[in-house]
């Protein structure tokens, strides 16, 4: 029962991780630049994401431009696109597999099959967390290095946006969920190896016949 509750908790974490991973991939605010200027009425907030760049004006106007050209993008953005999409795909696979392998569900067949499915789903979550953690870390490093560069003008400097923080948190949720799923399956297998089922030895029929009365003396 405790293992089933722990798996259910890990499944909830994985769901939050999947939704956060998808949101971080689609959000346009990976890096943000707020230019107030001489008047707050003309304040402009520029946001750049993996797929589009958006500009928000204090007057309420909002415009976005899609990034159609892939080869013209920096390498870290191209890598972030690829790894974030892989992270979303792996986390979705992990949700499907662990739904079959969890102890609280009636899918997946016998206990060994559910155990293997649960372990495979945990591996998917761990890989998804790694694929989500790498681009967010690389993207944050590029933002910080450009912000500290004295040769870059202040108007071209950005700060990490909400999408980066969402990606970090989602990757952490996926990693924790994957570790919980894998460790629960490993503990179960280790217990089966350390404590094998006891074999009950029953007396043979020959011993039972010897223990009874011999009928040769009465012939």
Automatic annotation (TrEMBL):
UniProt keyword Nucleotide-binding, yes or no? no
Superkingdom in the source lineage: Eukaryota
Keyword Membrane in the entry? The reply is yes
Pfam families from the UniProt entry? PMP22_Claudin
Q: Where does the record say this protein resides?
A: Cell junction, Tight junction; Cell membrane
GO cellular component terms attached to this protein's record: bicellular tight junction; plasma membrane
**Main subcellular location:** other
Gene3D superfamilies tied to this protein: 1.20.140.150
User: Signal peptide: which range, if any?
Assistant: 1-24
Record GO terms (molecular function): structural molecule activity
UniProt cross-references to InterPro entries, sorted A to Z:
Claudin, Claudin_CS, PMP22/EMP/MP20/Claudin
Q: Which UniProt keywords apply?
A: Cell junction, Cell membrane, Membrane, Signal, Tight junction, Transmembrane, Transmembrane helix
Topological category with respect to the lipid bilayer: Multi-pass membrane protein
Which family does the entry's similarity section mention?
Answer: Belongs to the claudin family.
The task this protein performs is described as: Claudins function as major constituents of the tight junction complexes that regulate the permeability of epithelia.
Identify this protein by name: Claudin
| Species name | Grantiella picta
Q: Which gene encodes it?
A: Cldn20
